[in-house]
Amino acid sequence: MRLSRRLASTTVAVALVLPLSYDAIAHARVHPAEAESEPEDLFGAACRIRITGSHVTAYCHNPYPETDSVSLHVECARWWDLDSDSSSVDAEPAQTVRLTGRCWKEVDSVWVSHRPES
């Protein structure tokens, strides 16, 4: 009886730790084959998106020397809830910008679009 409780608690602990260790792995934005290209080809701010209830916040940091115009797009889950697209915000080199949006009810999907400054 005691062995099965230990086995069950160990199994639960391992099941909880495995997804956390995957999230902690650094994800490279540039594949090794692309890393050999010229530095001028590198473009695009790295964006982190957080959804809290019906509110969406995106933080985009541009590590590259070219300005990136970013825009937040929010699709709401309910058919009567209006989807929204934010106006473009220029993320200058080494700058972090914050974009926000919301739905009245649930959020269905969110993405950030990027384009070079014109």
UniProtKB/TrEMBL annotation:
Annotated signal sequence range: 1-28
Alphabetic keyword roster: Signal
Name of the protein described by the UniProt record: Secreted protein
Record bears the keyword Signal: yes
